[in-house]
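Ticket reopened. Same input as before:
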Amino acid sequence: MPARDHKDIWTSDTVVELTGVSKTFRQRKTSSRWQDVGRNLLRPEWLEIHALKDVDLTIRRGEIVAYAGPNGAGKSTTVKLLAGMLAPTSGTVRALGMDPVRERVKYVGRIGVVYGQRTELWWDQPVSATFEWKRVVWDVPRNRYDRMVNYVKELLGLGEFFDQLARSLSLGQRMRCDLGLALIHEPEILFLDEPTIGVDVLAKRNLIQIVKDLNEDRNLTVMVTSHDMSELEQLAGRIVLIDKGRIAFDGDFNRLRREFSDQRRLMIETSEGLAPKLEGAELLTSESGRHEYRFDGSNVTIVDLLAQAGRQCEIVDVETHQADIDEVIADIYKRWQGGTVPDDPAAVKT
Amino acid sequence: MLQILRAWRVQTYLDFLFLARDRRNSSFYMIADVILTVAGITGVLLLAERFGGIGAWNRPQIVFMLGFASLAMIMSQGLFGMNVLWISRRIGRGQLDHLLIQPRPLWKSLLTEGFIPVSMGPGLIPGIGLMAWSWNAVSIQTGPAWWAAFALNLVAAIAVITSFSYIWGSLAFWAPAGAEEISSSALRLISELKPFPLDGMGRTLKSGLLSIIPAGFIAWYPVGALLGLRTTDYALLFTPLAALIMSGLAAIVFNRGLAHYARTGSQRYLDFGHRR
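Engineering reply: fixed in the latest deploy. New output:
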């Protein structure tokens, strides 16, 4: 693995710091009724969309942070603020000791941004041509460029399609190229906005492993947004959940499970076909003597459930496991839709 | 400056790769460009041919002006290709974000990212051909000073075209969907008006075509000055002055739009936001 050779690495341990950041957009409220046409044109009504509300967030060097939330929660707005594309309405955004908007030119030379839904590759050019273009625009010294091209080609397996046209690549290949391109100038922070959207399972698994390797090898700080929770759990040690512009949770995945919903599964195999009735557990499936239940570990214990089942029938086999992270998150989102977002995010913040 | 030259070099390389990849595609691409260039000036050329000139301008002078107009238009497209000249498309489609994550000032990105000299090459042929054809007949006293004035006025004409597109195109910052194609409309307007000599027009109309729609500064005014048809002192400096004023105005409007963009961002994404 090649060594880094940045001359002016910011020495602080904190690489991203959002303090009291709010971002408000104005959106025209348009009525589709005939009688409102005049008002729409002459005196339109405006809606204030609070994409972010008083967000405090700190990311330390070398962390991989998963940034998740339902659609419209404010994830992409945060990435845009941190990539220097948007200015906050209030509060301060600092990254690598700089203001991303005011010191954009200097700052973006030290970060990498990868969007799953858009590419930095020149569409009608071979992949290698975009890399060469990047070398010039980012002013990467030739020896460092050669070293990094070899590194990313090997790491991401770009060799086989490095001279192919970008438009002929599959989505997974394109994502690998975009990731490689984002690494050429050796960024200190990598922002990944839904990097695996539309990518197949194998390519997804590879990308996850690559990002983990990069983090370990180069102490690269990574902030990743995604809707795929199991992917985020594999990748990140810390998850920040955002909803309606507020940070609703900041901590690790196990704590998320415990604090929001200790959903567990219990599989009981009985000698008789009928499923026992268990108080505190919901029967999900029952087939050929195998019965699957869902229960909240904070309300009822496995011992209680097994005791109940034992009184009703003969137990042959038992399996238990935690609910899938996607299920936990879906449960949380459902609760939020019902309006039970914590008012004070600090209450659930580590 | 070195950074700009290096960026132009790499863009030339990309442009060459694009054209050299496929003989059939590149030849049709170039032929289409030549046809478009010729189509843009043919009407006035035929009028000049039929009447032996237009107003105070004789036929060779008209042909020289058409050559200059064609050069200015094609060079602006070659310097600011890839929708950099059609800036409302980039703004309206949310593609400005691609430029904002580059570690260089936005003006440098805009000055270099659309440089397509190889694609532009064939488009220059009609313009150079027309000027060469009329060269002897217009009997210009050339020397280094004249050539310097020619180059200065050509650059100024390109700046006028670009600024006009940017002034209108910046509206896309406020209305990304509605104004996405406004640069194309502005350029079409100015391109269709560029070959007409404005002599004999009323004062108001002429003033309008030298200010609000500055088509007169693309060829009519600078070529008149280069051919010695203007009686005003310092006529050769008028087009550069107009270019300076328009560039300043474009910079003001664009920067205000950019400040708005930093507040609002772009909500319009393409599924695959490719560069071209």
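Residues 270-276 of chain B have pLDDT under 50 and may be disordered. Chain B has twelve helices and two strands. Please confirm and we'll close it.
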